[in-house]
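If you are new to this repository, start here. Below is one unmodified record pulled from the training split, so you can see the exact layout before writing a loader.
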Amino acid sequence: MEHRKIYQVNRLSSKEGELLVEGPVAPDVLAGWSMHTDLDAFRRPRDQHEALVEIAALEEGRVIVTRDDTTIVGYVTFHYPDELERWSEGNMDDLIELGAVEVSNSYRALGLGKHMIRSAFADSQLDNAIVFATEYYWHWDLEGNKMNVWDYRKMMENLMKSVDMVWFATDDPEICSHPANCLMVRIGKEVPLSSVEKFDRVRFRQRFMY
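And here is the target side for that same chain:
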């Protein structure tokens, strides 16, 4: 499996000044920056910073960030699925998880999530992979965004659709546990049929479902 990492950088203007959307970022570069204190959706900012550096160092890992000078104000991560999750059961080297999208509260409404995700897929970087995202409503910042669960679900769907990720059915118990949860997937145009079939077997443990 060739993990294509083609560096992208875009400059955006905001009321906060010029922002840079860039990546995939090398781990040693990431280590020299700091995390905005608002980036605490998954763990403390310092711990999340360490996690980003670790992901960036993985062969398949990639981290796209938005930064204000040397402060990371948003990020998107891509990596292989966790070994304890069902998505790793197929041992697929071309199945990549879009793991996390987070933007600092004061930088929201700038479309940064969309800018970062589009950078990750630019120049056909992920055309040889199946990229998936598991969306669980309990991870969503409904209070901070002042949105109900269905509006937030629609926002996340639109974000994923900006890079041609679409809704896929699955019998995964966590996703099926609430109707707002969903599985979003993009199958790259270079992915062989054998990988698509293997992914189908991972999506459905009950074989009669597909």
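Two things worth knowing about this chain: Residues 76 and 101 are 5 Å apart (CA to CA). The two ends are 27 Å apart (CA to CA).
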